Amino acid sequence: MNLGKIGISKNVKKCRCSTGGFTLIEMLLAFSIFSFLIIFIVHAIPLLKYHAYSNETVDQLHWEIFLNQVKREIRTADQIYLYKRRLDCITDRRIIYEQYGERLRRRVNYEGHEIILFNISQIEFEQINKGIKIKIVHKNGKTYEGDIYFPNEIPIYKG
């Protein structure tokens, strides 16, 4: 039985194709990259909301920073001079917090001019039991109050 000879045209070239498809390692790698991207996107979306701080939120953050700075300086003070609208902390230097127009400023040894808070209409310092109460009224009418308690006996002199 002669089936004849089947010839291949000279214009057709043989190609070597892999029929294996994706390997398991390639699939796992693609899945892990996809998973990391999804995790990153899910956790990054709430961070996008942080840029939309309102003025009230920014004022609250400024107040918290101010209060922590004053706490640190008061707790290291040897003496405190308390005025109605001014606070002096005495260590090896004199640190003064006082209202300056619509700002609260910090000075060291009556020098410098570091602005701590903005848009202040009123500030009051008051002695309480084993500490000091600070009350600030913002220009928008919001009142911020904070109590600072002393870890040890620090003499307070009223001016």
Word description of this protein:
With about 160 residues, the protein is an alpha+beta fold. The chain has a six-stranded mixed beta sheet, with helices on one face. The model has no long low-confidence stretch (mean pLDDT about 85). It has a domain at about 55-159. Strand 3 (about 95-100) and strand 4 form a beta hairpin. The relative contact order is 0.13. The longest helix has 21 residues, at about 25-45. It has helices at about 25-45, 55-75; strands at about 80, 85-90, 95-100, 105-110, 110-115, 120-130, 130-140, 145-150, 155-159. The N and C termini lie far apart (about 125 Å).
Q: What structural category arises from helix and sheet content?
A: alpha+beta
Query: Could you tell me how far the N terminus lies from the C terminus, measured between alpha carbons in angstroms?
Result: 126 Å
Beta strands, count = 9
Helix content, binned percent: 25-40%
Reading side by side through the largest sheet, how are the strands ordered? 5-4-3-2-1-9
**Total number of helices:** 2
Evaluate the radius of gyration: 35 Å
Mean pLDDT equals 83
Strand residues, percent: 35-45%
Q: Which word captures the global form? A: elongated
- pLDDT < 50 runs, ≥5 residues: none
Report the order of strands and helices: HHEEEEEEEEE
Largest sheet geometry:
6 strands, mixed
